[in-house]
């Protein structure tokens, strides 16, 4: 009986830890902004990954993929990506999260 209760408690603790880890990323879904005909889309996925797409009416579209982190105080987002040579870059910018929107570097993106 003790062994069964111990196994059940261990399983519950494992499930709780999984929920805690998945809620840490803070962002999920797609956010868009359109300014002067240029549409910028951020898609945030699992494990802190993101894709940024800029659809420009002039020139070629731009797609950047990488990872992101949100600072402990929630006021900064750090985009992490690699260049063609594999060198890692970290780009910290101001960040704000609201109901149905986020602001990155002062630009508002609405959740889709």
Describe this structure in words.
With 112 residues, this protein is α+β, with helices and mostly antiparallel strands. Helix content is 19%, strand content 51%. It has an eight-stranded antiparallel barrel with strand order 1-2-3-4-5-6-7-8.
Treating each run of at least 4 consecutive H or I residues as one helix, how many helices? Answer: 1
Spatial strand order of the main sheet: 1-2-3-4-5-6-7-8
* Strand fraction: over 45%
The biggest beta sheet reads:
8 strands, antiparallel, barrel
Shape: extended
Radius of gyration: 19 Å
Q: Would you report the number of β strands?
A: 8
**Oligomeric grouping of the chains:** single chain
Kindly report how far apart the N and C termini lie: 50 Å
Note the run of SSEs as H and E.
Answer: HEEEEEEEE
Structural class: alpha+beta
Whole-number average pLDDT? Answer: 85
Assign a percent range to the helix content. 10-25%
Query: pLDDT below 50 for ≥5 consecutive residues: which ranges?
Result: 17-25
Task: Please describe the topology of this protein.
Blueprint: H1 2-22, E1 29-35, E2 38-44, E3 49-55, E4 62-70, E5 76-82, E6 88-98, E7 101-104, E8 107-111
Antiparallel strand pairs: 1-2, 1-8, 2-3, 3-4, 4-5, 5-6, 6-7, 7-8
What attributes characterize this protein structure?
8-stranded antiparallel barrel, alpha+beta, extended, 1 helix, 8 strands, single chain
Care to give the gist of this entry?
Helix content is 19%, strand content 51%. The protein is of the alpha+beta class. It is extended, with a radius of gyration of 19 Å.
